[in-house]
Amino acid sequence: MERCDLCSRLRYAFVLMRPATRTWIAVVIVGCVLAGGAYALTRPGKGQGGKTSGGASAAPGPRATPVVIALARAGDLPVALTALGSVTALNTVTVRSRVDGQLLKTLFSEGQLVRQGELLAEIDPSPFQAQVTQAEGQLARDMAALQNARLDLERYRVLVDKEMIARQQFDTQAATVRQAEGAVKADQGQLELIKVQLSYTRITAPLSGRVGLRLVDPGNMVKANDPGGLVVIAQIEPIAVVFAIPEDSLQPVLRQYRTGKAVPVDAYDREGKKKLATGVLAAVDNQIDPGTGTVKLKASFPNHDGALFPNQFVNARVLLDVLPNVVLAPGEAIQRGPQGAFVYVVKPDGIAQMRRLELGPSDGGLVAVKQGLAAGEAVVVDGAEKLQDGAKVEPRERAPARTRS
Q1: Are strands 264-268 and 275-284 parallel, antiparallel or unpaired?
Q2: Is the pLDDT reported for residue 22 higher than 90?
Q3: CA 20 to 30 Å from 95, out of 255, 259, 283, 374?
């Protein structure tokens, strides 16, 4: 009862105070409550549930950052130039008939590999065989006439020597012999022409390669040099790749090409991961395209396994040089900032050190380091975005990067 009476008196006194005084008293009370709560939370032995200062351990330091590392190594680095190219058949021929006639049969399968001289199709030969017979008869008749004219010429020679006939008659007979000889030659030429046309009824492959889809079916009439043709043959052994490089990269290629040594060229798939074939640089175009600022190159590939196909898109990789025994760092480890390239090197004590680098060429995910890194040092390849110089790390190794084969 006494406590309640005391509280009533305090409330009555608080009401009689001036408004400004009441405000200050309220602020002081709230401040005291907050200060007491903060002290209760921060004093030793509270808040974290730890021990009192008499038996407490030291507060834990900053936690190590997990990172993935790889070792820089020494090795040879190929200096290559890569460009997108298209596979092109070394030769492409549209097979057409050279005479008119009915197509009797085709002797190839669509998509088949054929050899030069292999029979592909036959055209009805009977009209040309009849013409051959006719030409042979004409030749036989004219040869008989020539033989008779020669016999008469011999008789006239005897008679003119005995002055039994006029010299003019002998000269006329000699001219008749020459006319008959000309007729025989014309007949022989006509016979040979018809025989050639008869041979054209058997259509053979002009080169070795792969035939495409059949363009004319047997039974149709075909004409000489029909624009459509019978079938298209593409030579795929060897085969070519045509690609374009920037004009700024032309001189290094020309220096290698003009040495007379074979310049290796590798063909990779569109993603640039799988090597399809290996060949050599065959030709460099004679002018730069002013519209694109590029120059075309052609490489030749044996293509015995048929890995390259006409009009296929590939990545052509021209080998220009090989840098021997250089320090190679994974490309993922290279970071770039306002002052240039750098990496985080992990020391044996688990501390990350930022190291500035002088870089050289790159190839296949590896970068040549001219200065700033030694072979065998561990560099951060994953997790570098969380680091700063001197940070403690928890490294985990990965397999070293490999060059493309």
Answers
A1: antiparallel
A2: no
A3: 283
Residues 132 and 85 both lie in one domain: no
Region label for 286, one of left (φ > 0), alpha (ψ between -120 and 50) or beta (otherwise): alpha
Q: What mean pLDDT is predicted for residues 178-206?
A: 95
Question: pLDDT value at position 96?
Answer: 93
Domain housing 9: 2-42
Interhelix angle 126-161/167-199, nearest 10 degrees: 160
pLDDT, one tens digit per residue, over 311-352 is: 999 999 998 888 888 888 888 888 888 888 898 998 888 888
* 12/18 Cα distance (integer angstroms): 12
Instruction: Give the DSSP H/E element, type plus range, for residue 40.
Output: helix 19-42
> What residues contact residue 191 under an 8 Å CB cut-off, 6+ apart?
132, 135, 136, 139
Has residue 268 got a pLDDT over 90? yes
The verdict on residue 340 lying in a domain is: yes
Residue 53's pLDDT is 42
- Please state, rounded to an integer, the average pLDDT across all residues of the chain: 84
Q: What is the pLDDT of residue 368?
A: 87
Report how many domains make up the chain: 5
Residue 28, pLDDT score: 59
Regarding whether 114 and 212 lie in a shared domain, the answer is yes
The enclosing domain of 288 has a CATH number of 2.40.30.170
Euclidean distance between CA atoms 372 and 341, whole angstroms: 10
Using alpha carbons, select from 304, 302, 272, 298 the residue that is nearest to residue 285.
298
- Dist. CA 186–CA 192, nearest whole Å: 10
**Where would I find the H helices in 126-277?**
126-161, 167-199, 250-257
Percent over 90 (pLDDT), the chain: 48
Cα-to-chain-centroid distance, residue 49: 66
Is pLDDT of 69 > 80? yes
The CA-atom distances, in angstroms, between 212 and each of 62, 104, 146, 229 are 70, 19, 53, 12
Nearest 5°: the CA angle 392, 394, 396 is 145
Using CA atoms, how far apart are residues 99 and 196, in angstroms rounded to an integer?
Answer: 10
Is residue 16 domain-resident? yes
For Cα atoms 101, 107, 111, give the angle at the middle one, nearest 5 degrees: 120
What phi and psi, each to the nearest 5 degrees, are found at residue 165?
Answer: -135, 165
Q: Which residue has the tokens 């870089």?
A: 359
Are 145 and 196 found together in one domain?
A: yes
Q: What is the pTM of this model?
A: 0.63
